[in-house]
Amino acid sequence: MPSPLSPFSSSSRPDCLIIGGGVFGLSIARSCLGDGMSVMLVDKGEIGQGASYGLLGALLPHMSERWNEKKEFQFNALKNLSKVKEELEEEVGISIGYDRCGRVVPLGTENLRERHLVRSQEAETLWHGAETGYYHKVFDDTNLHGWINVDLCPEGYAFDNFSARANPRAYCEAAKASVLKRGGQVLENRTVEAIEDLVDGARVTLDNGDVIEAGVVVMAAGFRSFPMIEKLTGMSELGQGVKGQALIAKVGQEPGLPILYDRSVYVVPHDGGVCAIGSTSEEVWDDEHSTDSRCDEIWAKALNLCPMLENAQILTRWAGVRPKAAKRDPMVGFLPGSKSLFAATGGFKIGFGIAHAIAEVSRERIAGVTPTLMLPPTFEAAHHLDGKPWS
Fold first, then answer.
1. Nearest to 291 by CA among 301, 300, 282
2. Of 25, 26, 211, 375, which residue is 20 to 30 A from 364 by alpha carbon distance?
3. 8 Å CB contact between 138 and 26
4. Tens of pLDDT along 199-254?
5. Contacts 24+ apart (CB under 8 A), 386-389
6. What span, in angstroms and rounded, lies between the C-alpha atoms of 263 and 42?
7. Predicted model pTM
8. Which of 176, 148, 184 is nearest to 32 (CA)?
C-alpha cells in the first residue's frame, strides 16, 4: 500500500477532513487552508484521478432561456475562473491549460437559427455584455479554416466568446500541489468505512483501522458521496453515478480555435495540438473504467463535425463516472440537524466551472462566518434532503 503523501498521525484532529480528492474536494481544501484551517484530504485512490481525471475540459455557460439563480451563479463562477487560474498557476508553477476560446454551434435549421438569435439578444443583457464584452451572436460566414463541416451550417453558426476550456488533469495536479504547499495532509488509497456525527465534531474510520476525529467532515467523493449521505440520513436514491466516455486525439491544430458542439458531441481544442472529444452519458453501466462502442460512436460524430480530425491519431480513451443528484443540481451544505457533516457533490457536467465558487461557500459555512456568496436554493443540501433531519 502506498504511503501517505504527507505526515499523518491518527491522533491529529484537523479542523476539516475532506473525503474525496476530485475538483470539489481539492478546491474546498485549498480554500480552507487559505483561511488558516488545518485540513486532511482522504481519497480511496490517487488524488484527482476519479471523475475529475476526465479529458473534455469544456467550461460552458448555461443557455439564456429561463434564466435563474442557478444560471447566474454558474455565470459568475465562470467569469471569475480566469482569476482563479492566474492565482493557482502563480502559486505552484503548473499550467492548467485554460483559454477563453469560445464555442461554435452549427445551425442546421431555420428554427435553430431563430432560437440562437433570441439567445443573442438575451445574452447581451444577462451576460452584461456592455460591461464584460461577452456575447452570443449568429454569423452567416462559415469560413472557419476547415475547422467545422460547412455542410452542417446551412443557416450559419452561433458563436459565443465566453466559453472556455481547461485541462482537467492539469487543474487537479495544480490544485493538489497547492494543497500540499499550504500544509494540507493528504492520504491516498484509503477508503472511509464509517462516518459518525459527534457532539463536537465528527469521526471517520478508515479501511486500515485508523480512526480520525475532525471538526467537520466534508463528503466530496463524487457519486460515492450519495450512499454515505443516505446511510447517515436514512434516506434513499439521493443521486447516482452517470458514466461518461471520451477520448483525446492528436490533431495538430493551430492555437486559438473555438470549441465545437453539435447534438451531444464536443470537440475541444487543447494545448499541444490535441483535441478532446466527448462525451457519453450512461445511467446504466457495469464497469466504470471500460470504453466500448459508445466511444466509437462519439468519435464518428466528431469526424462528421470537424474535418481536421480525419487524419488524427487517437491517443487515449477514458471512462469515468460523474455524480448526478436526483434533483439534478449540486448538493452543498451541512446535513440538516448536523453542525459537523457537510455535503459537496453532484457537480456532474459543470463541476470544474463552479468548483472554486462552491469552495468559497463551503469555507464560509465551515468557518461559521457571515456569508458573502449565496448558493442557489436548489443547490442547498436541505433542498435535496427536504429539510428533514434524520432520526
1. 282
2. 211
3. no
4. 999 999 999 999 999 999 999 999 999 999 999 999 999 999 999 999 999 999 99
5. 387/336, 388/336, 389/335, 389/336, 389/337, 389/338
6. 38
7. 0.95
8. 184
Q: State yes or no: pLDDT of 390 exceeds 50.
A: no
Coil vs helix vs strand at 115: helix
pLDDT category, 2, cuts 50, 70, 90? very low
Helices 351-367 and 23-34: crossing angle, nearest 10°? Answer: 40
H/E stretch holding 266 reads: strand 265-270
Are 246 and 55 in contact by the 8 Å Cβ rule? The answer is: yes
HSE-CB at 299 with a 13 A cutoff on CA atoms is 20
Q: What is the pLDDT of residue 12?
A: 77
Find the helix or strand (DSSP H, E) in which 203 lies: strand 201-206
DSSP state of 99: B
Distance separating alpha carbons of residues 375 and 362, to the nearest angstrom: 10
SS3 content of the chain, % helix, strand, coil (to 5): 35, 25, 40
State the sign of the Cα–Cα–Cα–Cα dihedral 377, 381, 386, 391: negative
